[in-house]
Amino acid sequence: MSGGYDVELFVDTPDYDLICTICQGVLRCPVRVACNHVFCKKCILQWLKRQETCPCCRKPVNQSFIFMMYKLSKSISRLRIKCKNETHGCDATFPLSEEYCHSTACLYELVPCPHQGCGAQALRRDLETHTQRCEHWRQLCHMGCGTLLSLQTQAQHNCYRQLRQEHEAQRQSHRAIAAALQRKMRKMQNTMAHMKRQIGLICESLEVMDSQEEVENAGETTTASSSSSSGSSSSS
Ligand SMILES: [Zn+2]
Ligand SMILES: [Zn+2]
Ligand SMILES: [Zn+2]
Ligand SMILES: [Zn+2]
Ligand SMILES: [Zn+2]
Protein backbone atom coordinates (compact mmCIF):
# COMPACT_ATOMS: atom_id res chain seq x y z
CA MET A 1 0.00 0.00 0.00
CA SER A 2 1.46 3.37 -1.01
CA GLY A 3 0.49 5.49 1.98
CA GLY A 4 3.60 6.76 3.75
CA TYR A 5 7.15 7.45 2.61
CA ASP A 6 9.51 4.55 1.98
CA VAL A 7 11.68 4.13 5.09
CA GLU A 8 14.66 3.27 2.85
CA LEU A 9 14.62 6.82 1.44
CA PHE A 10 15.70 8.41 4.72
CA VAL A 11 19.33 9.12 5.47
CA ASP A 12 18.87 8.23 9.17
CA THR A 13 16.48 5.46 10.18
CA PRO A 14 13.32 7.31 11.29
CA ASP A 15 12.03 7.04 14.88
CA TYR A 16 9.63 4.23 15.50
CA ASP A 17 6.79 6.64 16.40
CA LEU A 18 7.03 8.21 12.94
CA ILE A 19 6.08 4.92 11.31
CA CYS A 20 2.49 4.27 10.25
CA THR A 21 1.42 0.82 11.55
CA ILE A 22 -0.86 0.30 8.55
CA CYS A 23 1.65 0.87 5.68
CA GLN A 24 4.94 0.55 7.64
CA GLY A 25 6.11 3.74 5.94
CA VAL A 26 7.00 7.12 7.43
CA LEU A 27 3.81 9.09 8.13
CA ARG A 28 2.47 11.10 5.20
CA CYS A 29 -0.18 13.69 6.22
CA PRO A 30 -0.28 12.27 9.78
CA VAL A 31 -3.66 12.23 11.56
CA ARG A 32 -4.55 11.33 15.14
CA VAL A 33 -7.68 9.33 16.03
CA ALA A 34 -9.60 9.41 19.32
CA CYS A 35 -7.42 6.75 20.99
CA ASN A 36 -4.33 8.95 20.21
CA HIS A 37 -2.83 6.53 17.69
CA VAL A 38 -1.38 8.22 14.62
CA PHE A 39 -1.58 7.07 10.97
CA CYS A 40 -1.22 8.46 7.46
CA LYS A 41 -4.50 10.14 6.55
CA LYS A 42 -4.96 8.01 3.43
CA CYS A 43 -4.15 4.78 5.28
CA ILE A 44 -6.65 5.24 8.12
CA LEU A 45 -9.46 6.46 5.84
CA GLN A 46 -9.03 3.35 3.70
CA TRP A 47 -8.91 1.16 6.83
CA LEU A 48 -12.11 2.67 8.24
CA LYS A 49 -14.00 1.76 5.07
CA ARG A 50 -13.66 -1.88 6.14
CA GLN A 51 -13.87 -1.61 9.94
CA GLU A 52 -14.38 1.34 12.27
CA THR A 53 -11.86 0.32 14.95
CA CYS A 54 -8.25 1.40 15.56
CA PRO A 55 -5.82 -1.01 13.88
CA CYS A 56 -3.53 -0.72 16.94
CA CYS A 57 -5.82 -0.99 19.96
CA ARG A 58 -9.14 -2.10 18.42
CA LYS A 59 -10.99 0.77 20.11
CA PRO A 60 -13.87 2.19 18.05
CA VAL A 61 -12.89 5.09 15.74
CA ASN A 62 -15.30 7.78 14.58
CA GLN A 63 -14.41 9.14 11.14
CA SER A 64 -15.46 12.65 12.15
CA PHE A 65 -12.93 12.70 15.04
CA ILE A 66 -9.73 12.62 13.08
CA PHE A 67 -7.21 15.42 13.67
CA MET A 68 -4.50 16.62 11.31
CA MET A 69 -1.09 16.81 13.00
CA TYR A 70 0.49 19.81 11.30
CA LYS A 71 3.50 20.15 13.61
CA LEU A 72 4.44 16.50 13.22
CA SER A 73 3.98 16.82 9.46
CA LYS A 74 6.35 19.81 9.46
CA SER A 75 9.07 18.02 11.42
CA ILE A 76 8.82 14.98 9.15
CA SER A 77 9.20 17.25 6.12
CA ARG A 78 12.52 18.43 7.58
CA LEU A 79 14.01 14.90 7.74
CA ARG A 80 16.79 14.36 5.23
CA ILE A 81 16.22 11.86 2.46
CA LYS A 82 18.35 10.41 -0.31
CA CYS A 83 17.48 10.98 -3.95
CA LYS A 84 15.20 8.29 -5.39
CA ASN A 85 17.62 8.13 -8.33
CA GLU A 86 20.40 6.85 -6.08
CA THR A 87 20.51 3.63 -8.11
CA HIS A 88 21.15 5.68 -11.26
CA GLY A 89 24.10 7.38 -9.56
CA CYS A 90 22.70 10.43 -7.71
CA ASP A 91 24.22 10.82 -4.27
CA ALA A 92 22.33 14.00 -3.28
CA THR A 93 20.55 14.27 0.07
CA PHE A 94 18.06 16.99 1.00
CA PRO A 95 15.07 17.65 3.28
CA LEU A 96 11.94 15.68 2.36
CA SER A 97 10.18 18.96 1.54
CA GLU A 98 12.65 19.59 -1.30
CA GLU A 99 12.08 16.25 -3.00
CA TYR A 100 10.02 17.67 -5.87
CA CYS A 101 12.34 20.60 -6.37
CA HIS A 102 15.35 18.28 -6.61
CA SER A 103 13.63 15.87 -9.01
CA THR A 104 13.06 18.68 -11.50
CA ALA A 105 16.82 19.34 -11.61
CA CYS A 106 18.31 15.92 -10.76
CA LEU A 107 20.76 14.88 -13.50
CA TYR A 108 19.92 11.22 -12.86
CA GLU A 109 16.16 11.64 -13.36
CA LEU A 110 14.68 9.78 -16.33
CA VAL A 111 13.15 12.30 -18.68
CA PRO A 112 11.43 11.84 -22.04
CA CYS A 113 13.10 12.90 -25.29
CA PRO A 114 11.53 16.20 -26.40
CA HIS A 115 11.41 15.25 -30.08
CA GLN A 116 8.00 14.46 -31.43
CA GLY A 117 7.41 10.79 -32.13
CA CYS A 118 10.50 9.54 -30.26
CA GLY A 119 9.13 8.38 -26.91
CA ALA A 120 12.58 7.38 -25.63
CA GLN A 121 13.67 8.20 -22.09
CA ALA A 122 17.13 9.16 -20.95
CA LEU A 123 18.82 10.37 -17.77
CA ARG A 124 18.69 14.16 -17.74
CA ARG A 125 22.50 14.36 -17.99
CA ASP A 126 22.47 12.11 -21.11
CA LEU A 127 19.49 13.77 -22.74
CA GLU A 128 21.52 16.21 -24.80
CA THR A 129 23.64 13.40 -26.25
CA HIS A 130 20.50 11.49 -27.09
CA THR A 131 18.63 14.41 -28.63
CA GLN A 132 21.61 15.24 -30.85
CA ARG A 133 21.62 11.71 -32.26
CA CYS A 134 17.87 11.10 -32.05
CA GLU A 135 16.46 10.15 -35.44
CA HIS A 136 13.38 12.20 -34.62
CA TRP A 137 15.54 15.31 -34.44
CA ARG A 138 14.07 18.15 -36.50
CA GLN A 139 15.27 21.73 -36.65
CA LEU A 140 14.76 24.72 -38.87
CA CYS A 141 17.96 25.72 -40.67
CA HIS A 142 19.54 28.30 -38.36
CA MET A 143 20.64 30.35 -41.36
CA GLY A 144 16.99 31.25 -41.83
CA CYS A 145 16.41 29.66 -45.23
CA GLY A 146 13.26 27.98 -43.86
CA THR A 147 14.32 24.36 -44.51
CA LEU A 148 13.24 21.84 -41.83
CA LEU A 149 16.32 19.68 -41.36
CA SER A 150 16.56 16.09 -40.11
CA LEU A 151 19.77 14.34 -39.09
CA GLN A 152 20.17 12.96 -42.62
CA THR A 153 19.45 16.16 -44.53
CA GLN A 154 21.42 18.31 -42.10
CA ALA A 155 24.70 16.79 -43.27
CA GLN A 156 23.90 17.55 -46.91
CA HIS A 157 22.30 20.91 -46.31
CA ASN A 158 24.96 23.56 -46.47
CA CYS A 159 23.09 26.78 -46.47
CA TYR A 160 26.07 28.90 -45.45
CA ARG A 161 28.54 27.41 -47.87
CA GLN A 162 25.98 27.64 -50.65
CA LEU A 163 25.28 31.28 -49.89
CA ARG A 164 28.99 32.02 -49.78
CA GLN A 165 29.62 30.26 -53.07
CA GLU A 166 26.79 32.17 -54.71
CA HIS A 167 28.11 35.40 -53.28
CA GLU A 168 31.64 34.60 -54.44
CA ALA A 169 30.42 33.73 -57.95
CA GLN A 170 28.50 36.99 -58.11
CA ARG A 171 31.53 38.96 -56.99
CA GLN A 172 33.68 37.27 -59.61
CA SER A 173 31.21 38.01 -62.40
CA HIS A 174 31.08 41.63 -61.24
CA ARG A 175 34.85 41.77 -61.32
CA ALA A 176 34.89 40.25 -64.83
CA ILE A 177 32.38 42.83 -66.05
CA ALA A 178 34.42 45.64 -64.54
CA ALA A 179 37.62 44.31 -66.14
CA ALA A 180 35.92 44.03 -69.54
CA LEU A 181 34.65 47.60 -69.25
CA GLN A 182 38.13 48.78 -68.38
CA ARG A 183 39.58 46.98 -71.38
CA LYS A 184 36.96 48.56 -73.64
CA MET A 185 37.73 51.97 -72.23
CA ARG A 186 41.45 51.54 -72.80
CA LYS A 187 40.76 50.44 -76.37
CA MET A 188 38.60 53.48 -76.95
CA GLN A 189 41.26 55.72 -75.43
CA ASN A 190 43.84 54.14 -77.74
CA THR A 191 41.58 54.59 -80.73
CA MET A 192 40.96 58.18 -79.74
CA ALA A 193 44.67 58.85 -79.33
CA HIS A 194 45.27 57.23 -82.69
CA MET A 195 42.52 59.31 -84.26
CA LYS A 196 43.97 62.45 -82.68
CA ARG A 197 47.34 61.64 -84.18
CA GLN A 198 45.72 61.01 -87.58
CA ILE A 199 43.80 64.24 -87.37
CA GLY A 200 47.00 65.99 -86.39
CA LEU A 201 48.76 64.53 -89.39
CA ILE A 202 45.90 65.46 -91.66
CA CYS A 203 45.94 68.99 -90.30
CA GLU A 204 49.68 69.20 -90.78
CA SER A 205 49.47 67.97 -94.33
CA LEU A 206 46.59 70.38 -95.01
CA GLU A 207 48.73 73.20 -93.64
CA VAL A 208 51.62 72.08 -95.78
CA MET A 209 49.36 72.04 -98.83
CA ASP A 210 48.01 75.48 -97.93
CA SER A 211 51.42 76.94 -97.52
CA GLN A 212 52.56 75.32 -100.75
CA GLU A 213 49.57 76.83 -102.51
CA GLU A 214 50.38 80.16 -100.95
CA VAL A 215 53.92 79.83 -102.05
CA GLU A 216 52.79 78.90 -105.52
CA ASN A 217 50.28 81.78 -105.56
CA ALA A 218 52.90 84.11 -104.25
CA GLY A 219 55.27 82.78 -106.87
CA GLU A 220 52.69 83.45 -109.58
CA THR A 221 52.12 86.99 -108.40
CA THR A 222 55.83 87.53 -108.10
CA THR A 223 56.46 86.02 -111.50
CA ALA A 224 53.59 88.09 -112.87
CA SER A 225 55.01 91.33 -111.53
CA SER A 226 58.56 90.17 -111.49
CA SER A 227 59.08 90.39 -115.19
CA SER A 228 60.22 93.88 -114.41
CA SER A 229 61.74 93.03 -111.10
CA SER A 230 63.47 90.02 -112.52
CA GLY A 231 64.64 92.26 -115.24
CA SER A 232 65.85 94.63 -112.64
CA SER A 233 67.40 91.81 -110.73
CA SER A 234 69.04 90.55 -113.85
CA SER A 235 70.17 94.10 -114.58
CA SER A 236 71.75 94.33 -111.17
ZN1 LIG B 1 0.45 4.75 6.30
ZN1 LIG C 1 -5.73 3.02 18.96
ZN1 LIG D 1 18.97 13.23 -7.64
ZN1 LIG E 1 14.72 10.94 -29.17
ZN1 LIG F 1 19.49 26.72 -44.97
TrEMBL record:
What InterPro entries does UniProt report for this protein, alphabetically? Znf_RING, Znf_RING/FYVE/PHD, Znf_RING_CS, Znf_SIAH, Znf_TRAF
List each copy of the RING-type domain by range: 20-58
Tell me if Zinc-finger is a UniProt keyword of this record: yes
What Gene3D superfamilies does this protein's entry cite?
Zinc/RING finger domain, C3HC4 (zinc finger)
Q: Where are the zinc fingers (TRAF-type)?
A: 102-145
Database matches in PROSITE patterns = ZF_RING_1, ZF_RING_2, ZF_SIAH, ZF_TRAF
Looking at the record, the residues that make up the SIAH-type domain are 78-136
Q: Which branch of life, at top level? A: Eukaryota
Bias (Low complexity) = 225-236
The UniProt entry, under SUPFAM superfamilies, shows: RING/U-box (SSF57850), TRAF domain-like (SSF49599)
MF GO annotations: zinc ion binding
* Pfam families named in the record: zf-C3HC4_2
Segment Disordered: which positions?
A: 212-236
Query: What positions does the domain TRAF-type occupy?
Result: 102-145
Keyword annotations for this protein?
A: Coiled coil, Metal-binding, Zinc, Zinc-finger
Q: Which residues form a coiled coil?
A: 164-198
Would the keyword Coiled coil turn up in this protein's UniProt record? Answer: yes
Q: Which PANTHER family match?
A: TNF RECEPTOR ASSOCIATED FACTOR, TNF RECEPTOR-ASSOCIATED FACTOR 4
Protein name, per record = Ring finger protein 151
- What lineage does UniProt assign to this protein's organism? Eukaryota, Metazoa, Chordata, Craniata, Vertebrata
